[in-house]
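#struct-queue
[09:14] JT: dropping the first one here, sequence first, then the structure tokens:
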Amino acid sequence: MNGGRPARVLVAEDDTEISGPLVRALQREGYEVALVSDGPTALAGGMSGTADLLVLDLGLPGMDGLDVCRALRARGSALPVLVLTARTGTGDLVVGLDAGADDYVAKPFRLPELLARVRVQLRRAGTGPQDVVAVGSLVLDDRSRRVTVDGDEVVLTPKEYELLRLLVQHVGEVVTREVIMREVWHTEWLGATKTLDMHVSTLRRKLGDAGAMITTLRGVGLRLERREV
């Protein structure tokens, strides 16, 4: 978090097969994500002051990623830069680091590794998302994936945890059924949500009194209320 807002990640990647899943994964982590697909736009976005991290592909049209990185540093930008590259030779890595990159992820990459490196860079910059979030008596610790209510641990299934985590990330806001099905179950909503309804019911029961903070907006979605129970 930075001033109470989600960290903002600028992704510069022209391959849609990479950028699509990457953007969705970052959004699931609670980041605000902007996507650009060429070097000059990446440089402009990096210099705009609106991003907290630049995830930069080296093989961009219009301007090579290394030149983008060099230009950022030459203009005095301290924006953290995480490079995505298929160039994994030692010489290539040295050139990239000398150009001002903060870290490298080799293609093809595993999303968990990339997301971990994103967290490291944002944490170093002081803009990473909160690992521990308290909403009333409910505390969610994303480092250990533990949930407690009034200090007592609540054991959740992976899907229950992801559902609660999504609601916590958007506390006070309505999260639509479409978004929930896409982000938690990785599927498009087709109207029937019995699975979701069952998980909400079980989650409320497991959370006890804190479960009352989860409000259902019939036909729309869910909202986690920030209130004491």
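[09:21] JT: and here's the second one, same format:
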Amino acid sequence: MKEIKAADISAAVARMCISANTRLPDDVRRKFEEGLANETTAAGKEIFRQLIENADLSFDTKLPLCQDCGLAVFYVEMGEEVVVPGGINKAINEGMVKGYQDGFLRKSSCDPLTRKNTGDNGPAIIHMDMVPGDGLKISYMAKGGGSENMSRVTMLSPSQGWEGIKKFVVNRVAEAGPNPCPPIILGVGIGGNFEIAPKIAKKALLRKLDDTHPDAKIAEMEAELLAAVNKLGIGPMGLGGSYTCLAVKIAMAPCHIASLPLAVNVQCHSARHEEAEF
């Protein structure tokens, strides 16, 4: 068995929370630069210029990329031979609280009815998967309210198939319009069941924007959805243009013969995420 100290996990999580909220990932910046070069509208080009400037200012000043530092979402792949004395969930949550406090990150977690703020952005949202071996990988995502509010899950009829999936995804983006701060990134979960589809849709957002799905058929589906969404012409910040969406990432899972679960998780242009391995 491999023992990993809870304090080491907490320290790494705190660093991730601060770093992800102040340093735009390289793959996202490359997409901004691509948009600046290729966007067809003057307004769209200006938005990309401002997004790049904002990223540079955030990196230099260590101030957040966006005022909405989101709820803290973690995807954990924990080896079956790993032991964390004191508990991994507690270690992650304590690290998140410290990161949001020390990094002066906005705390957005509140009671759903009274709307009273929890005061520390807790509890962290943790998705745990046990995997073979003695490794531990923790991926963090800052998920803002504007994009999360535009996300949806539905249960399609199996007969609707790919065309039904495509129609739902494109309509969701059209209905969302400028609300999720485009250019957006889409995580699409197909299959599983009511709770699995949105889980894998959000996890798909952790992929690099410029990667290619190893399954050629799924890669083709991602490209088809991206083209269809960008034809909407919503454009950067909803001002019109050819870059409504930067990337579409699909995750699939087996489902019941009578169901076709579908989830669309919308991410804003400020795709803040980071990972640590132990």
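[09:30] RK: nice, looked through the second one.
[09:31] RK: The first strand starts at residue 2 and ends at 3.
[09:31] JT: good to know. The chain has a mean pLDDT of 98.
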